[in-house]
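Minutes, project check-in
Item: structure for the 256-residue chain
Input as provided by the requester:
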Amino acid sequence: MGAIRLVHLYPDLMSVYGDRGNVLTLMRRAEWRGIPIELREVSLGDELSAADVDLIFFGGGQDREQTVVSGDFLQQKGGAIREAVEGGAALLSVCGGYQLLGTSYTTVDGRELPGAGLFEVRSVPGPRRHIGNVLVETDLDGQTRTLVGFENHSGRTYLAPGLQPLGRTIVGAGNNGEDGTEGCVYLGAIGSYLHGSLLPKNPWLADRLLRDALAHRRGEARVSLEPLDDRLEDEAHRSVAARIRAAGGRVKSGAW
């Protein structure tokens, strides 16, 4: 059925705090299983068709970069992304990418930018910046797990009633620092504020995205992935989670 088609949106403009590591993790975990995967980097002026996408990554950027890509994204790519996800493609969006996939995003100078509307969320400026390590508990797919990452955002994101959050914050602000939610999930699409990068520290989430992307590529409802030896990754995750709990999310010199 061919290779998984992975699209990295705006890697030259929207890739801060190690976000590119998410793409590398997806590539490696597919390759370790012998699953062919092809990466396409898509930026300003490039066309995108839903028929050519199995897996999408959209990273974060500063307000200036978000403003630069907003028009191009809505005019040339937003509709294709929605169509792809509705058709079963997988997606991970972080911070600025997450915000631009919502219904609207208001910049710090008061400009309201329309979003692509994949996630029914709105984002507005907040009174303070949330910076630090984050620990999240999630029941995604009915199994309780933790996610670790790093947040650096002043935006506050609010989910519409009924929209599923990715998880609840144990340490950190998450979506808005008020309601205890972090990120959101819609079909095979995930939005999150977690940088760091997210997937190397949480390999099970990378595998969920790969599983959904492979099912989409094969035209099947569900597929299984060959397990990998993640003993080192799992031990590193447990160690980091314990450190975050102990430090309460504070960033310390020499932190991971």
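Outcome recorded: Helices lie at 20-32, 63-76, 78-86, 96-100, 198-201, 203-218, 231-247.
No further action items on this chain.
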